[in-house]
Amino acid sequence: MYDYDLVVVGSANADLVIGVERRPAAGETVLGSDLAVHPGGKGANQAVAAARLGARTALVARVGDDPHGRLLLDSLSSSGVDTAAVAAGGAPTGVALITVDPSGDNSIVVSPGANGRLTPEDARAVADRVLRPAPVVSAQLEIPLETVTEVVRLLAPGTRFVLNPSPPRELPAGLLAACDPLIVNEHEARVIAGDGALGDGPEEWARALLALGPRSVVVTLGARGAVTAEAGGDVTRVPSVRVDAVDTTGAGDAFTAALAWRLGLGESLPVAAAYAARVGAVAVTREGAQASYPTAEEVAAL
Ligand code: ADP
Q1: Tens digits of per-residue pLDDT, 90-120?
Q2: Which domain, by its residues, includes 31?
Q3: In a domain, 291, yes or no
C-alpha cells in the first residue's frame, strides 16, 4: 500500500496577469487593467489537478519565504495537496509576468526564482518520506534538469516515472529511458526529436520519439486528442471530447496529472489517456488554469 497516489516534482509560480489594449513595444509604457494574481507553475498545476480528482497527492517544490509563496502554499493546501515537501526560502517565489491583449495573445516573462533552487539535495531530503512511497512520480522541466535526473535515480524499483519535458530541451539518454510515458505536445515533440526526425502524422511522431528510448510516449494534440505508443506495443489514437473551448491554459497539465494518476491505479496507457482527455476537455471549458480543473464527478458528468 502506498502513502500517495501521485507525487509531483516541479515548479510553483505566482502568475501576475495584466490585461492591456496593446502589448508594449521596446521603450514604451502602456496602462493596463488591475493586477490579477493566480497560483500557477506546471508542478503546482499538476498537483492541484490530481488532488481535485481525488488523488492523494504530494508536491515536491520550492517557493520563497514571501507573500507569493504563502499564496501558493494556501492554494495547494486548500485543493488537498500535501505540501510537507514544499521547501520555503533561498530565493523569491517564481513569478510569471503576463500581459494579455484583447485578442488573447500574450507576452510572458518568467523569473524562476526559488524553482531554480530546487536542488538534487532537496530531492534526496524527501526521498524516503515522499518519493519512494508513491506508485507514480511525475515531473516537468521548470526546475533544474539535474534535480529531475536525481529524482529518477532515487525512485523505488516499482515506481513509474512520468515526464512532461516543458519547456522542452534535449534530454540525456538515461532520463529518456526512465520515462513511462514521455508526454509531449507538438512543439515539445519537435524540439526533443528534432524537426527532421518527425514523420507526417502524430502516429509517426510517437514512433520517432519511442525510438529515442522511453518506455512509452503520449503526444497530445489539443482539440484533436492524443496518441499513445508503447515500446513493443501498439500505437493508439485517443479521441478528444468535443467541447466549446474558452481557455486552454493549463489543459496539458491537467491531462498529464490525470494520466499519471490513472496509470498508478493500474489502468492501461490508452485507457488512462482517454480519461485524461476528458479531464483536459473539462479544463478548456473554463477560464484559468487551476481554477478550471474538474472534480471526478464533473468528469463523469461530461
Ligand atoms: P498543451 O497545453 O500541453 O499544449 P494540449 O493543448 O495538447 O496540451 O492539451 C492537452 C489535452 O487536453 C489534449 O490532448 C486534449 O485531450 C485536451 N484538450 C485540449 N484542448 C482541447 C479542446 N479544444 N477540446 C477538447 N479537448 C482538448
Answers
A1: 999 999 999 999 988 888 899 999 999 999 9
A2: 6-301
A3: yes
